Amino acid sequence: MPAAVIFDMDGVLVDSESVWDDVRKRFVEENGGRWSENAQRDMMGMSSVEWSRYVRDQLGVDMEPEEISREIADRVAGVYREKLPLLPGAVEAVRSLAAEWPLGLASSSNRHVIDLVLELANIADDFQATVSSEEVGAGKPAPDVYLETAKRLGKEAPACVAIEDSTNGIRSAHAAGMAVIAVPNQDFPPEQDALELADVTLKSLTEATPETVRQLR
Length: 217
Hints:
The protein is α/β, with parallel strands linked by helices. It is about 45% helix and about 10% strand. The chain has helices at about 15-30, 40-45, 50-55, 65-80, 90-100, 110-120, 145-155, 165-175, 190-195, 210-215; strands at about 5, 105, 130, 160-165, 180, 200. The protein is globular and about 50 Å long.
């Protein structure tokens, strides 16, 4: 039996990639930068420390990374407060799996954005550990955020199951030694070679049932 289940957040629980994309693009254009069509895909999985440096160094916004990160994350939080874009089956999946396993969250979002999403969705109490990649050494595809989440849950990483949607997220969980359930992001689908690392691929989170998880270990 798996020892714990660890969710990604963006693209798994919330349909957020387009929100981040729109906010970052507008921010870059408002602050003298040059937006690239590859930018959102490049930044998927990066920690806030990493993507804010990317915005400065690659997109040409002449501001300190800390200020870039704070302003963009605050704008995203503002969008969420107006209407949280929960994905179908997100709350149900969290609650059904929380009834059988300790849950963790391993996210690339800023800490205050993570806390806001879980509060607005009324699922904060279902998670025993939540980690932002800004709190560890490197963002996804490095395994750091998954390893730290397993550590905070008191579990061995290879005994955990991860639920992911993106190329870098799948690579991160796989590198941590976890079994991976892939729920491919529809707007930014994972690369085929990353998808092949997943143990099972689902069409949506509505299929992430306890029975699906049990079959992985």
